[in-house]
Amino acid sequence: MRSSLIDRYRDRLPVGPATPVVSLGEGDTPLLRAERISERLGADVYLKWEGANPTGSFKDRGMTLAISRGLEQDARAVVCASTGNTAASAAAYAARAGLQAVVLQPAGAVASAKLAQASALGARVLEVRGSFDEALAAARALAERGAYTLVNSLNPDRIEGQKTAAFEIVEELGMAPDVLALPYGGGGNLCAYWRGFTEAGADRPKMVAGEAAERATTVASAIRITSPAHAVGVGEAVRASGGTVVPLDDEAILDVWRELAQTEGMFCEPASAAGIAALAHVELEPGSRIVCVVTGHGLKDSETAARLSSPPLVVDADPDAIVEATR
Q: Given the DSSP bridges, would you call strands 77-81 and 44-49 parallel, antiparallel or unpaired?
C-alpha cells in the first residue's frame, strides 16, 4: 500500500502521534531527465513532474498537511481563494476528511476544467466579483471569524507540506541541484522549496522564478495573481541564492509549453512552463545541474490546449490517403 507524504516525512513535519492523516497518495513524484532541453541549454536538466500528484498539481503536498492539521484542530469546514489548483486540491482532501470546502474564485479567471474538478469533488464554488486578491481577502476574513480554516498558502502547514519536494530531489540526485527553476504566482512554492533545501542540509540552489509580465491577464491562469502573498519571502530567497525573477510574455511561456509537450512528452498547463522559459534569460554554467518544477497537468487547462492546437485532419479510411496526410 502506498504510504502518505506525512508518514514518509513525519519526523520533519509539524505532526504528532495523534494527528489524523488525510492522504490520497501524494508526493514521490517523478524526476525525469529532459534530454532535448538539456541539449538546447548545454546543461543537465531534470523535470520534477508535480502533475503526477492525485489532483494533478503540486498543491496536494501542502493540502494533505493543512487538512490533516485542520482535522486535528476540530475544523468543520475549509475555505480558500483560488485560480483553480488550490480549489481542486482543497475540495479533494476536504472530501476525504469529511469536511465542507468553500472555494472563492475570481470572476472569469479560472480554467473551466479546474472549476469542474472542484465542483465534482463537492466543493461549494462561489465566483467573487473581483480579483484573486479580493477573493483571498474575503477568505481570510471568513477564517478570522472562526467558522472556517483557511487552506491557502498563508496557512503555514501548506508550506511545510510543499517543502517535501525539495527533500525528494536531494534524495534522488544525492545533492541539491545547481539551479531550481519554477513558476512564480503567489510565491509560496518557491519559499517552500527554499525551506526544504535549507532543512535538507544541502547546498541551496540558485532560485530562478518565471512570472507573467502581465500578471492580471496572462494566459497562464495558474499564476494570474497580481499581488503575490509571499513576495517578501521570494525576494529574500532569490537574493540569498544569487537567483533572479524573470518577467515573461505569454508567447515565451507558450513556446516552452509546446516544447515540453512535443519534445519531452510532458503535457502541462501553461503556467508550468514559466520556470523553464525563465532559463533563457539566465547565464548558466555549462553542464550545470538544473531541476525545473513542472507544477500542473495539462488537463487542468484543456480549453487553452485545444485552442492552441491544430484540429485533426479529416481523411478517408484508406492507407494511401493516411500516408499522404502525414507527409
A: unpaired
Residue type, 6: I
CATH class of 5-57+157-308: alpha beta
Q: Which of 181, 178, 188, 162 is nearest to 274 (CA)?
A: 181
Q: Which residues contact 217 (CB under 8 A, 6 or more apart)?
A: 224
| Intervals of CATH 3.40.50.1100 along the chain | 5-57+157-308, 59-155
Show the low-confidence residues of the chain (pLDDT under 50).
none
pTM for this entry: 0.94
Q: Is 287 exposed, middle or buried (0-12, 13-18, 19+ CB in 10 A)?
A: exposed
pLDDT value at residue 75: 93
C-alpha cell at 111: 480554467
Q: For residues 310 and 202, what is the distance between their CA atoms, to the nearest angstrom? A: 45
Domain covering 59-155 in this structure, CATH number: 3.40.50.1100
